[in-house]
Amino acid sequence: MALPATIPADDLSPERAARNVKVRRHLDGRIEGMRAYRYSWWVHWRELADYELPRRYKWLITPNQWSRGSPINQHIIDSTGTIAARTLAAGIMSGVSSPTRPWFRLKLGRIDSTQTSPVSLWLAECERIIYLILKESNFYNALAVAYYDLVIFGTCAVLIYEDFDNVINCLNPCLGEYFVDNNSKMAVDRLAREFTLTVEQTVDEFGLENCCPSTQTLYRNGGAGLGRELIIAHMIEPNLPFGESGYVVPRRFRFREVFWEQGQAQTYLLATRPYHEFPGAVARWDLVSNDPYGRSPGMDALPDIKQLQQETKRKAQAIDKMVNPPMIADAILKNQPAALIPGGVTYIPGMSTAAKPHMAPVYQVVPQIKEMSEDIHEVQERIKLIFYNNLFQMISQFEPKSNISATEIDARRSEQMVLLGPVLDRIDNELLRNSLARIWGIASRIPGLLPPAPEEILGQPIQIEYLSMLSEALASNKGGSIERLFAQVGNLMTIDPAAGDNVDIDFGLDALASAWGVDPRVIRSPEALKAIRQERAKQQQAQAQQQQLLAATQGAKNLATSPMGPGRNALQSLAGAPT
After folding, report:
1. How far apart are CA 289 and CA 430, in angstroms?
2. How far apart, in whole angstroms, are the C-alpha atoms of residue 293 and residue 61?
3. Tell me: the pLDDT tens digits for 491-531?
4. Which terminal Cβ of the chain has fewer Cβ within 10 Å, N or C?
5. Single pTM value for the model
6. What's the farthest any 2 CA atoms get from each other in the chain?
7. Per-residue 3-state assignment (H helix, E strand, C coil) for 468-502
8. Residue 248 to residues 9, 19, 24, 532, Cα–Cα distance (Å)
9. Distance CA 427, CA 341 (A)
10. Residue 465 pairs with which residues in a beta bridge?
């Protein structure tokens, strides 16, 4: 399967060059405006990265930096904030989109993949293929990185491209590298970024003929020039015309993607690519007004994390001064050997006659380590609370010897997950829905990958139902209520069999299977069930007729062999028998 067709952006014709200049002016101006609007978040992200996640942020996009592997987390002494954020991200991953269990369901109106109709079986097969695509690609790895960005920076982005080997390939641009903007519905429909590629990577991705002359020269010369980095600019936006210049991709596509070399002449574009849907997803933790970037628990926890670093540093200094205090010494010991290790002895001339020792600590340090540790622990617990760690460490909160069932653990988890309800809705609508829409679009355009749709549903939209921990808990409660109803009706039928007439068993079993997420093939279709019951009715009718025939035959036999009364001779005479 090939990538989306790259429309060559540079044939050096006057018409193409003039169009490219107009496109570049639009793109460069749009990025500058998005950069100015992003500035306040950009500075705040820098502080969040310093104290919580230093390696998922780009302060400046600068090519040919050879110090990227050097330590950059110099602000982090106590890593509680980073660990708490990681726990929250992992909890959301397992609770909302776990790779180990179903987390979405396809629907068509009121029909879903858990029912028994032919449409349900088609939906179930499509689900199986989509889950296989997610598993075989790097989708779940990209999703885990996105959740980490989301809980710390409040904004995350995943780009999803077609891939020959795994159907899709996902990329995670890091904060500081990209810009986003909202449409009139406050949904992200424009993403721009600046990143670096080597000369060799640029030619491999976009083709030598689409690169600017200086890049072509570096590539042809080979050697060290192939590893030289270039700043590549990238814009994904709605496919609108450029005045009289028209569209740069066919107008039937909803979005376009443009790449160019930053800082080069405006007559050059690396590539323009069309898309039917937005090639990715951008999610925000919480929004204020029409802001394109979100707020996060990491922002709420930042003051506490700073306090924690300061207190941890002061505690370490206090312990260090207590164990190895600053010293004063007699001038006669200058340039003389002194044993300052534990248990060491320094001999001082005249020590026995001196009024004071010739060497002593400057001051006695007796820090209140216990009180300091308790305050640090209080700050650590507050940080964990801000990151909702109590929701995802349920078992560790119980006493070691407490007798608690799995049902009670699930009930408590479901109750506390309500706190994340608004966030889960935003994740479903912004991140997962757009990702699945993109993946479905890619899969549906690959011949033979998805099964043919039944004719009766052609042209109808497919909906997605998300099976998060909260929705599963609600469905489980629904299934439990049906099960309890059946049990109660069974008890009443021992008193009055007519109680069973109030319950539609078939509908109840379908609802119970749907609530429990049972494979639709387990429950027979209404047509198959009707045929089975008709056959059973025929068998029962035939059996009843056979029993009636046997009863009649037995009755006649009994009548013939039974002793007769006074009319015996008359009956025999009528039958022609001898008297």
Report:
1. 16
2. 20
3. 888 888 888 788 888 777 877 776 666 666 677 777 778 88
4. C
5. 0.77
6. 161
7. CHHHHHHHHHHHHHHHHHHHHHHHHHCCCHHHHHH
8. 9, 8, 12, 61
9. 58
10. 105
